[in-house]
Every structure is written in structure tokens, then in C-alpha cells.
Amino acid sequence: MANKSDIISELKKQIESFKTEANVESVGTVLSVADGVVRMSGLADAKSQEMLEFSNGTIGVALNIEEETIGAVILGDASGINEGDTVKSTGRVLSIPVGDAIVGRVVNPLGEPLDGRELKTDTFQPIEKIAPGVMTRQSVYQPVQTGIKAIDALIPIGRGQRELIIGDRQTGKTAIAIDTIINQKGKNMKCIYVAIGQKESKIAGLTARLEKAGAMEYTTIVLAGASDPASLSYIAPYSGCAIAEYFMAKGEDVLVIYDDLSKHAWAYREISLLLRRPPGREAYPGDVFYLHSRLLERSAKLNDNYGGGSITALPVIETQNGDVSAYIPTNVISITDGQIYLESDLFYKGQRPALNVGLSVSRVGSAAQTKAMKSVAKTLKVDLAQFRELEAFAQFATDLDEATKKQLERGKRAMEVMKQKQYAPLSVAEQTSVMFALNAGMLDDIEAARIQEFEAKFLEYMKVSGSEVLRVIDETGELNEETTKTLTKHIEDFKSTFSV
Question: What own/partner pairs with CB < 8 Å and gap ≥ 24 does 446-449 have?
């Protein structure tokens, strides 16, 4: 047994080495909780968008900072939070994990993996960030090839552009986005697909399709499912953009798809009304324009002094009965650099992609088009515009002159050439060679009903016999005199074997 003096000296040592640390924590009390929204008192120092931690470990985000109370949304399950619980501020704005490890993964808007595998990364980035300034940007000059003839020729997209995909439900909006992701294989571009309020079964099928095409190697899916709370749908696009900004800062090119921002606006409206913010037009809060403008303005092409990276955004908006003049569609149209408008009537007629060439426009992408594509697309735009006018006129006219008939026939073939199967993107050279044949009048003697059959067989022939021409067009991006002659010869040779 230790003697008394030893015990005293041991106690003295412990008293001398004992140090106290004072931790100051800002703590509040939950006043009410309902529908995923919490009102609390205290937390006088809390900031907007700050992460708050409840006593059961659940995270919330402060959105309403009022004189006496704070309104916050809960990111996750609210069932464990009760009136009277304590809540403390973390001092951190809402951030998510980012890094190279997130590529090829399916995560929720908080960066938590949904694919059953661990995500190892120590880098965090705030989901809200001020968009790059004017002096850090550069004008768009590199193309983003979608692999879809109608888009690459008529409504081209450039790296750093924001191109809206708009149309009614079930018109092929997501199909265009997925084809664009698949076509980025080998083009040194990361892809992020943000699914807002989508069915989990649909996203599971979509992930399987991307894996089959080998596209998940460079793609991240951020999923806020239909069964998730509105708060996760609200932060989902910002989380996707934060992941994209991590790669842009490294000088890489990123494609982000927000599918869709209509559901994002609905989620924000739900949260705002529950927070008792005053409603405006269609019950949306007054800052619903800012909701999307601060997101889409983060897409940019940075100049070389800032790494030269880019974020290209393809936001999706769902219209009701083709009404593009509704509140959210007009807002997003005014923020973006053009729109791809998909029409139900064209879709049901079998014109797929159901692209309305008259209402679709790209305001900057043509600066990024290759010379070869520009040369073949120029006459195509005119042909399609004249065809639309003449088609309406020809319904009432019984006797048409020869020139009008010729234009109508050329237009019919142009519309057939614009058709394309899903998950079958084409290279620039393949698109250029088909459109060259159309513009040169070399398809005029082929029945309109057989144009797609001709195109499929012609491209197979070109891959074998005309592979050198395709390679030259892809590498140079031009149709010079020699290439034009060789291409014409290949088309003539193939036509002699194709039974007209």
C-alpha cells in the first residue's frame, strides 16, 4: 500500500498539470418543428446558409434570420427533433465533400454515397459560391459535341455555355442529356448529372445505361430522389455545381446537367411557404429568379490566367402544354444562352429528337462550331426554314410549281436526316458527311422513307472504305477542296451499290 506522502505528491503533480479550456458554443432551443422546417430561438450569431446541429446529430441549414427567431430546413429525417431540443451553430456554411474520388459515383446532395461504397476525400467545398467575374472569363470557342446531328448542326453548344433543354414531359429532354454524356467519352470532359425529384428506379436504369456505355468512368450522379425531403431537392443543383467547380479550378472541362429546374423551383416554393415568406406570382417567392441566376451564372469558360477550365450547363425545364411563357420557363430562358425546344406534336409524329428548329436557338455556340459543320449547316438552316413555310402553304395549294415541289422534297429529306436513334451519337465527321450528301442534292433521288436506311448503311460503308476521309475531317475540322472531291466520290460509289 502506497504511503501518505506518495499519494500527496501524485495529487500535487496532477493538480499542476491540470489545464482548463473554455469552449464557447452558441446554443439555441427548438420552438416548433413541422414539415421539415424548424423555428428556434437563441443563436444570435447564426448566419444565413450556416449549418446547424441538433441534439440528435441531424443537420439543418439556417435560411430565415429574424429578430427573435431563426427558420431552418432539416437536411434529412426530422422525426427525431422535438420542441425544446437544443441546437448549436457549427460556424460552417453548408459544404460537401469533393475530389477525384467522387467521379464515377452516385451521391446524395450532401455528398454521402448512395452506391454502397465508401467515399474517401478530405476536400470540402461550400455549395454556394459567387460566380466568376467578367475579367476571369473568356468567350466561348471550343465545342461540346452532343453527337446529335440536329443539335450540333443547328443549335451548337460551346464549352462554358448554358443551353436550356425545354419541353413538355415525355418529349425526350433527358434522352438528349444522356446522349450528350455518352458522347463525351474520350473527349477529356467530366460530366455531372443532377437528378432533382426523380424516381430512384429511373436513375437506377439510367446509371446502368451509362455503365454499359462506359460513361460512368467520367460521370458523377447527384440524386435528390422523389421520396427525399424538399430541402435536399433545393440544395441538389448547388451541390452538383460545387463538384463541377472543383474540377474547373483544376483547369478541366465539366458538363453539368440539372434535371430538372422546374422541380427545383417547386421545392424552393414549398420551403419558402413553410418558412412563411411572402408569396408572389404563382405562389413562388420574390427571389425565385435569383434562385436560378446565381446557379447558372457559375457556368463559365475561364481564361488561361485562371486555369482555362469551364463549366457547361444544360438545365432542363418542363413546360405544361407547351407554354414557354409561364413564370419559371421565361425566367430560365432569360438567364441562359439559348434553348433547345422539344415539341410534343413532333414527338408523336415520330420526329425524334422532337426539335422545333424555329423556336430553338444557340446564342454563342456557333462561335465554337468547326468550319466543316458550319459549311454544311448553313444551307440546312435555310432549307428547313423554307420547308416549314412551304409545308403549311402546300396543304391548301393543289397545283405547285416545280421549284416549290423541289424545295418541299428537299425539306422532307432534311427532316428525315434530322432523325436519330437514342444512345447512338455520331462523330462530327459522320454528321458532316451525311449533311454534305443532303446539301449536294445527292439524296434527292432516294425516297424520303428510305433516307434513314440509306444513312445507316452509308455510315457503315464510310467506316470501312472512307475511314481516311472521316479521320481528316475529324482532325482538321474542315472540308477543303480535296476532301470534298473524295467525299463526293465515296457517296457516288456507295449510291451505285444502294438499291434505289
Answer: 446/413, 446/498, 446/500, 447/500, 448/409, 448/412, 448/413, 448/416, 449/416
